[in-house]
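Deviations from the work plan: none for this task. Representative record:
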Amino acid sequence: MKRITIGNSALTASEISLGCMRMADLSKEDANKVINTALENGIDFFDHADIYGGGKSEEVFADAIDMNATIREKMILQSKCGIRQGFFDFSKEHIISSVEGSLKRLKTDYLDTLLLHRPDTLFEPEEVAAAFTELEKSGKVRHFGVSNQNPGQIELLKKYVDQELIANQLQFSIMHTGMIDTGFNVNMTIDPSLDRDGGILEYSRLNNMTIQAWSPFQFGFFEGVFLDNDKFPELNKTIDKIAADKGVTNSAIAVAWIQRHPASFQTVVGTMNPGRIADIAKASDVTLSREEWYEIYRAAGNQLP
Ligand SMILES: NC(=O)c1ccc[n+]([C@@H]2O[C@H](COP(=O)([O-])OP(=O)(O)OC[C@H]3O[C@@H](n4cnc5c(N)ncnc54)[C@H](OP(=O)(O)O)[C@@H]3O)[C@@H](O)[C@H]2O)c1
């Protein structure tokens, strides 16, 4: 498993991360198997959020491995805050109480990384700055970042916070490529030329922020998985052919496609199937050629100008 440095920090982690959004309903035994399979395959970065399963995902995670100091040191734990029932909340009070809740449920005294989950337009940057400083000083959070934010939002935050923002978690997959499409279609009048994210790909590269690609197997907004899906025959034919050539599964190719991009991606996979986790980990040993990468992009229905 290749390791990457997360943003401008000293934190190194597996280039594939396990997202725990779907862990809430797992039994202790099943969750234990999932976590240990990830660790055995070199995946040591675990993504959480206070809202996953209403907090249950974090609880199941810690219980599954009987969280203790020895195992804690083997993993990098990230959580997210800011989404509440029907609104977003970046107030100092909420950020701090959310982290305290996550720490309690995860049975740890620190988070390696905390991300602000979704932009709260009512946010006061001074409050976020005060929350980050308090959390850093108390040792409860070591690194900070954002999720689903554009360059303008990040710059605004950076004007106030003292801490480096090391990661931005964004939806990205073979079937969700808006941040790439724009660059291929500069100054054109077709839909893919629309810049929907303020040039986040180039901004992240220029500022050395790691893009954490969430939902790497989904199309639309949780509409389903594109792999082995009859709706996408051409794409699956192409992926399956390349998977057979490389001796890995189609899931591994979908992740290798993301990791092939030089923009320092970290792919956050959400499968709770240990066999799939082991298969996906093999993506780290696959490097797609430029031709293969573009072939998959075109097979997904994208046209190059
Ligand atoms: N920042 C944000 O706003 C945000 C939003 C959403 C998610 N996330 C993070 O991203 C993580 C991943 O999200 P996700 O779970 O939606 O992404 P995903 O990895 O694209 O999807 C995983 C889901 O697809 C299913 N699946 C079916 N066939 C599959 C195959 N061949 N290969 C892999 N999975 C297959 C899995 O089922 P099985 O379990 O049966 O394999 C699982 O239910 C989450 O856990 C969370 O940490 C962040």
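The first strand starts at residue 3 and ends at 5.
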